[in-house]
Amino acid sequence: MSGPGQEEKRSARRNTAFRVARFELRIALPRRSCVWACANPQLTPLRLGSDTIASLAVAAITELKETRDASPGFATEVDDAFSHDTVLSAILNPALQLVNTVDELTVLKGGSVGEKWDKAIEDKIERLLSAAIEVQVGAILESLGIKDVDAGNARGAFETFNAKMVDFAAPTFDEINQTKARMTARRRVLERIVEEYGRVWSEFGEAGKAVHSPDALRQILN
Amino acid sequence: MDNLGFSNDDALDGDEGAARYKLLSLYAVCGVLLFYRRQLGAAGAEEESGLVAAIDECLVKARDTYKESLQAHGESLKHYVAASEKSQSR
């Protein structure tokens, strides 16, 4: 005997089982979402945050490495086409060309890409950080009045500097999410300001009646 | 469509998940073929035997397709991100 009520119950049980299966798939296959999506085209593909070039590159490298480690066929190296180095070159060469933020480069570096590629990524991070730091340093020196100092304007420059230092706030580099890189950039900007101030101070400090020595400025900024 | 039934349509469509899945599958197939080939060699199978020749032929095709897919995957990263952003903004 089956009435409309029983049919509804069966339907509800099917729906519950479907929801549980989908939930378990999401738990079991967090990094295999592509496999899951292909095997279950009727279900909504799982998306873990926004895709970036770095995250997609790391996903491909990691999953190819996992496949390689799991297969006895790759236990003995037979062809360079199948090597992990070939995977790294094919994925990281274009990725490194395209990625232009410290955060994304840090994601790439976290993909266990080996010493050679770590070095290439670190070099690019350094180039980006240096460029960002120099932009900030140039703007700060200009705002503090010690960018183009000569004997004629030294006194006014140091007066402006002293007045502006009261409200000085170091750049925050909010565009960099990685705390370590952000703190490094901030520290290096302050070091560069002390360095530039020291250069101006040694040349025109006496003529300009400078109040603070470079060491005193370093203390203030720290 | 290549000889192994894999196409680059997913790369063209910007479907990174499907393209990566196929790349991983190709790589796994290559691993299986390499393993079978090595086992047959260790068991003393003749180079001219039909099975060995067939595996060698499959291995060459699988390797070439894998190489092309890997290259295409790396070169399509920007395209995949653009497609992902487009689909999320819908």
Descriptive notes:
The complex is a heterodimer of chains A (222) and B (90). With 222 residues, chain A is mainly alpha-helical. The N and C termini of chain A lie far apart (83 Å). In chain A, α8 (179-204) runs antiparallel to α9 (214-221). Chain A has 9 helices and no strands. Chain A folds into 3 domains: 10-48; 49-112; 124-221, no CATH class. Chain B has helices at 9-13, 16-42, 50-75, 77-89. Chain B is an all-alpha fold and 90 residues long. Classes of the chains: A mainly alpha (222), B mainly alpha (90). Chain A binds chain B through residues 33-35, 37-38, 45, 47, 50-53, 56-57, 59-60, 63-64, 67-68, 71-74, 76, 78-79, 81-82, 86-87, 90-95, 98, and chain B through 16-18, 20-21, 23-24, 27-28, 30-36, 38, 63, 66-67, 70-71, 73-75, 77-78, 80-81, 84-85, 88.
Intertermini distance of chain A: 83 Å
Note the gap between the termini of chain B. Answer: 30 Å
Helical segment tally of chain A?
9
Structural class of chain B: mainly alpha
The overall strand count of chain B is 0
Largest interface: A-B, 37 and 32 residues
Oligomeric description of these chains? heterodimer
Mean pLDDT of chain A: 80
* Largest sheet properties of chain A: none
Helical content band of chain A: 55-70%
Order of helices and strands of chain A: HHHHHHHHH
